[in-house]
């Protein structure tokens, strides 16, 4: 079993319960193939950068699930038949790379915080010496 | 002799932008659309590495990320 990140786009869903029903139908395909949904996160309604399928906006939902790698192609083919799913992108998760990126981000934030603290201290020392 | 267009304007425009600090060993998060937007032009074309100054590995990551974002309508 391997972890995958899927980004779904649902269109024409005005209410939350309709979105939930569509999402459940999409995720039932994963469980039908023996996969397990690990987490889901709704990114909300976003406008498309360019019109797609004569639509201007849709609801984006990010889901992480575990699935046998041999069944992913079948899942993608199934989603072509599911009308509720407007578009889907399934990518394999690289946890080591994610950890590296998170560590780099934290290090960068720490360096920035230290730089700002040093600048604030230098500015304070300058105003004190001016007095 | 073929006329060679000067690309100094693209380089100057990019230099004038405020862009995220990126070291030579930093990895690009291909899912972070906000960061990827620094590496495309106003028309949505990917900027070459000789303009942005990123490494070849980072340029490949940017290319993958931008094409994925275009496919999902997150970028033009």
Notes on the protein architecture:
The complex is a heterodimer of chains A (131) and B (76). Chain A is an alpha+beta fold. Chain A folds into 2 domains: 2-93, Alpha-Beta Plaits; 94-125. Helices cover 48% and strands 34% of the residues of chain A. Chain A has helices at residues 16-32, 72-81, 95-130; strands spanning 2-10, 36-52, 55-67, 87-92. Chain A has a 4-stranded antiparallel sheet with strand order 2-3-1-4, with helices on one face. Chain A is elongated. Chain B has a domain at 28-76: 30s Ribosomal Protein S18. Chain B is an all-alpha fold and 76 residues long. Chain B is globular, with a radius of gyration of 13 Å. Classes of the chains: A alpha+beta (131), B mainly alpha (76). The interface between A and B is medium-sized, with 18 and 14 residues.
Relevant terms:
heterodimer; A: 131 residues; alpha+beta; Alpha-Beta Plaits; 2 domains; 4-stranded antiparallel β-sheet; 3 helices; elongated; B: 76 residues; mainly alpha; 30s Ribosomal Protein S18; 43% helix
Task: Give the helices and strands, then pairings.
The complex is a heterodimer of chains A (131) and B (76).
Chain A (H helix, E strand, L loop, with lengths): L1 E9 L5 H17 L3 E17 L2 E13 L4 H10 L5 E6 L2 H36 L1
Antiparallel strand pairs in A: 1-3, 1-4, 2-3
Chain B lengths: L7 H9 L16 H4 L12 H4 L3 H16 L5
SSE class of chain A:
alpha+beta
Principal-axes geometry of chain B comes out as globular
CATH topology descriptor of the domain at 28-76 in chain B: 30s Ribosomal Protein S18
**Which bin fits the share of residues in helices of chain A?**
40-55%
Rg on CA atoms of chain A, Å: 22 Å
Q: What is the CATH C-level name of the largest domain in chain A?
A: Alpha Beta
User: Hey, which two chains have the biggest interface?
Assistant: A-B, 18 and 14 residues
Q: Strand fraction band of chain B?
A: under 5%
């Amino acid at each position: 079993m391997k972890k995958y990140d899927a980004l779904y786009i649902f269109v024409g869903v005005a209410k939350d319960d309709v979105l939930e029903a569509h999402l459940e139908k999409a995720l039932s395909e994963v469980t039908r193939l023996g996969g397990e949904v690990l987490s889901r996160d709704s990114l909300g309604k976003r406008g498309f950068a360019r019109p797609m399928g004569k639509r201007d906006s849709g609801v984006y939902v990010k889901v992480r699930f575990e699935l046998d790698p041999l069944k992913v192609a079948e899942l993608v083919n199934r989603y072509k038949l599911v009308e509720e799913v407007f578009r889907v992108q399934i990518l394999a998760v690289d946890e080591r790379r994610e950890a590296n990126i998170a560590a780099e981000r934290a290090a960068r934030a720490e360096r920035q915080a230290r730089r700002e603290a040093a600048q604030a201290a230098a500015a304070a020392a300058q105003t004190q010496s001016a007095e | 002799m073929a006329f060679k267009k000067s690309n100094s304007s693209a380089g100057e425009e990019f230099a004038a932008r405020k862009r995220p600090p990126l070291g030579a060993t930093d990895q690009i998060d291909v899912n972070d659309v906000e960061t990827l937007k620094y590496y495309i032009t106003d028309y949505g074309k990917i900027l070459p590495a000789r303009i942005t100054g990123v490494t070849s590995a980072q340029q490949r990551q940017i290319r993958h990320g931008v094409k994925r974002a275009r496919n999902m309508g997150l970028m033009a």
